[in-house]
Amino acid sequence: MLIRVTPDELDTAEAIQAVGSPAAGAINVFLGVVRDNNMGRTVQYLEYDAYPSMAEKVMRELAEAAKERFGLEDCAVLHRTGRLEIGEASLLIAVSCGHRAESFEAGHWLVNEIKKKVPVWKKEVWEDGEAWVEGPESLGIQQAPASMR
Amino acid sequence: MLIRVTPDELDTAEAIQAVGSPAAGAINVFLGVVRDNNMGRTVQYLEYDAYPSMAEKVMRELAEAAKERFGLEDCAVLHRTGRLEIGEASLLIAVSCGHRAESFEAGHWLVNEIKKKVPVWKKEVWEDGEAWVEGPESLGIQQAPASMR
Amino acid sequence: MNVTVLLFASVADRAGTRRVELPCAAGDTVASVRDRLLERFPQLAAAVPTLMYAINEEYARESDPVPAGATLAMIPPVSGG
Amino acid sequence: MNVTVLLFASVADRAGTRRVELPCAAGDTVASVRDRLLERFPQLAAAVPTLMYAINEEYARESDPVPAGATLAMIPPVSGG
Fold it and tell me: In sequence order, what are the residues at sequence separation of 6 or more whose Cβ sits closer than 8 angstroms to the Cβ of residue D30?
């Protein structure tokens, strides 16, 4: 199980290789990519902050949960940190399993959970300013019981 | 739009590069991979036959349809032919779009349609024999009106 | 006037060839050309119930006319992916 | 006895630091350590309603006890991916 928070470029081939298995008939790869716009504003680049050791821990827990829940052969989750230009990948998820339907479901479930729970933050930098994005899907915003705040 | 039927190894990095776009926030990649078993039998390798010119035509039509239907930025569909060993990719789909949900839906829709409509065939080779797979999802088996047979 | 008939996968194996030139006349349809193919390769009869057809790389019905010089493909159930 | 408090993203920017050592006593909870942090950095008060917390890399509740020598992270709404 390949789990990594890193300032280096994410390598799709490495992740696909890592989840390869003779019993896998399907591999699904999801890349979260830096887009040139958000909420109607032009984005110049993103800056990612992270709590790397905890982020890796949460990513590993989610990967284990996905493996169990969807019967995966294997799973890789990588998140990049630091300054990312338009078109660069910030998140890379790869899952392998016997059949295709589970590969799509598992990948989608994982990215949704990552957006809620993994302690990583992005700052959008525009021509005329910048702001940390407080994720609308974050545990603290929507999902946490009041007692967890 | 990258569409290709080829005897050569499928290159995921090339497909990701091909669908890249400044407006894309999500890229989904699906790999159909040769599995070491099917229907309870041990598979040694697969041999793919194709009607390459028509396969590329149908793949292009499906890619255009997916682009329209899911609002994709771009789309790549590649299918390999010839002898494929366990773990090698026979099908590579990459889609790019603004947001993640559409990327998963589009990739899943595309692989389902490809399994129904693209004129490609696989032969399973076992230790003690071989057989052409007549796809249970093929248009001719389930979806075609009787008049199309 | 000829039609080029393409055979694939199990159908090509049974026929022992991937390509056959058959005569074709005005009024020929997918079904009539296919039946002419079966006269030459009776071992293909068992495949007919699940066959699909394409004229010049476009899926076609049994009743569709086959233009002179066309390529007619016999398409067994596909299993790509 | 100390606790190491980690700050990230907007919270780190507002505090002007990513790491603070605070005294910690028996009976301290996430909430009591956080309130001690706010005494030193009152500009963080606005962030509190959406903050989450982690003790030694595990999400924790405001009422959870903070062990001596623990690392307590202030976690603003995450936005990875």
Answer: D53, D55, D60, D61, D62, D63, D64, D66, D72
